[in-house]
Every structure is written in C-alpha cells, then in structure tokens.
Write a structure and sequence with these properties.
four-stranded mixed beta sheet, 3 helices, globular, 4 strands
C-alpha cells in the first residue's frame, strides 16, 4: 500500500488533485492510504514552493498546479 499525501490549504486545485489521485488509484486497483495535509507548518516541512503538492511514500513527486492524468497514472505504474 502506498502512502499518499496531498499538500495544500484547501484550494480548488488541491481538491481537484486529491480527487484525481483517488480516481486513478481506484481505476488501477491500487490500495493507497490518502492523507490531506492542510496545515502550513506541516506543508513547509516538505520544502515545496507552490501547492498542491503530492508526496508518495515520503518523496515529493509534484508541486504547483494540478498534475495531468497521465502523470498521476505514472506514479502508480509498477516499477519495471
């Protein structure tokens, strides 16, 4: 199971990113533990300059703007 954190204070882009990640994980039958991180002091620990941010298993994979679907799908592709 992957641990996924969406970093953001609740703006529309953050909500859209959260929904997109959920949708893609469900479509790929990937079990995820999804967490919304909305406290500024917690977001700052990841050293991102723009939200939304996405952290998977402790690694920042995205920050700033809504990622496109193909990018999100790539996060959940099995390692080759």
């Amino acid at each position: 199971m992957k641990n996924v954190k969406i970093l953001g204070t609740g703006c529309r882009n953050c909500q859209t990113t959260l929904s997109l990640v959920e949708e893609v994980a469900r479509a790929k039958c990937i079990e995820i533990e999804l967490e919304k991180v909305d406290q500024i002091q917690d977001i700052m620990q990841y050293r991102i300059m723009a939200t939304p941010g996405v952290v998977i298993d402790g690694e920042v994979v995205h920050s700033g703007g809504v990622p496109d679907r193909k990018t999100v799908e790539g996060w959940f592709d099995p390692m080759v």
